[in-house]
Amino acid sequence: MNRMMDAAMDGASTTVRSERFGTLADGSVVEAFTLQSPAVELRLITYGARVVELRTADREGRRADVTLGYDALKPYVENANAYLGTIAGRFANRIAQGRFVLGGETVQTTINDGANMLHGGAEGFDRRNWSAEVVPGGVVFTLVSADGDQGFPGTLTVRVRYTLRDNVVRMDYAATTDKTTVVNLTNHAYFNLAGEGHGTVLDEMLTLEADFYTPVSDAAAIPTGEIAAVAGTPFDFRRATAIGERIGAENDQLRFGRGYDHNWVVRGKAGELRPAARLYEPKSGRVLRVETTEPAIQFYSGNFLDGTLVGKAGVAYAQRSGLCLETQGFPDAPNQAGFPSTELRPEGMYQSVTTWTFEVE
Q1: What CATH number is associated with residue 149?
Q2: Strand partners, 278
Q3: Among 95, 108, 180, 354, which one is most buried in terms of CB atoms within 10 A?
Q4: For the chain, how big is the Rg over CA atoms in Å?
Q5: Catalytic residues
Q6: Is the residue at 163 inside a domain?
Q7: Whole-angstrom Cα distance, residue 143 to residue 128?
Q8: Are 279 and 193 in contact, with CB atoms under 8 Å apart?
Q9: Residues 65-115: tens digit of each pLDDT
Q10: What's the CA gap between 302 and 200, in Å, rounded?
Q11: Is the domain of 281 the same as that of 212?
Q12: Which own/partner pairs from 155-160 qualify as long-range (CB within 8 Å, at least 24 positions apart)?
């Protein structure tokens, strides 16, 4: 199927084009949607409601794809544990032992990361073929997760709306439930602002709008419950710092994750759209600014990429060839009384906004 729709958003023209991307083993069709503005080209697919390509210009006007991924469906299915570009849920990040107490009852989810649950469990939202609808300037992906899916209570209806306006990609998340449950949704895109397949991200300059982060207890990456100051540690990105500058420092937290894979507390009031991160690639001049309504952001420096995945440019993804900036609720929040709640009740609605703004300097 091919169709094109022109959409005007406050005078900025965005086109949306759809086509078949592939077919799953059960015969269901995976569609691709290409959103194009004068500044950015964004390609999405229904499998995982994921980003598969994002092209933007450098300071010389040369465009490159700045997200890791594949040209075909098969490697997304076969290498699902990489979570490239996907929507992670129903609970992104980790829950210790996949277990927590909700309304006086113990909930046990599926386990898929050692003894713990990661990104929604063994069959998370990344492995689902979402339904899609073209809307002005973008696409809305919808998924209904049944009561008991991966052990989580409540039938959860999730909508993720991607829109593109000029140089800004916006993701609007919404979810409702018929039973009290927990929800934490994020996008798991891997960025390399030099271009996909163009080396590591170690020279890229990162700023995080965060004075605190949540240390983890060991290599399983479960938070201890402490909210620790970044000052005087390798986790201080309040000023732009090269990712590689301190990644090899003698530090237990870095040793646990083989680099950065931690949750930072975003300054300001959760629920309000505010700056969370800024990434700058010196050679190309590309800049990515992340804003979010979420309370936190997970910075993951691609520590477990090991060269076994080969991407769109035909280049193996070596360690730190991409990084993630995942806006989110706190990991393991259902077990941590001192963390912001991730509970969703039937009378409520989960709502979240994250934007990616692409610039050059």
Answers
A1: 2.70.98.10
A2: 207, 289
A3: 95
A4: 19
A5: 188, 326
A6: yes
A7: 8
A8: yes
A9: 999 999 999 999 999 999 999 999 999 999 999 999 999 999 999 999 999
A10: 9
A11: yes
A12: 155/179, 156/90, 156/181, 156/183, 156/344, 158/89, 158/90, 158/125, 158/185, 160/49, 160/87, 160/130, 160/185
Q: Is residue 194 part of a domain?
A: no
Q: How many domains does the chain have?
A: 2
198 within domain boundaries: no
- Chain center to CA of 268: 21
Same domain, 154 and 292: no
On whether both 231 and 119 belong to a single domain, the answer is no
Cis ω for the linkage preceding 128 (within 30 of 0): no
The single residue listed with the structure tokens 């229904």 is 46
Q: For the segment 278-297, what is each residue's pLDDT rounded down to a tens digit?
A: 999 999 999 999 999 999 99
**Segments in 148-259 forming alpha helices (H):** 252-257
Give buried/exposed letters for 203-219 (b at 16+ CB in 10 A, else e): ebbbbbbbbbbbbbeee
pTM for the predicted model, two decimal places:
0.96
Question: Does the CA dihedral 56-57-58-64 come out positive or negative?
Answer: positive
59 in helix, strand or coil? coil
For residue 275, being part of any structural domain is answered with yes
Where do we find the tokens 């949750």? 263
Same domain membership, residue 209 and residue 183 = no
- Rounded to 5 degrees, what angle do the CA atoms 121, 29, 309 make? 55
The DSSP secondary structure of 239-293, one letter per residue, reads S-EETTSSTTSS-HHHHHHTS-EEEEEESS-TTS-EEEEEEE-TTT-EEEEEEES
| 254 token code pair | 């870095």
- Domain span including residue 25: 3-187
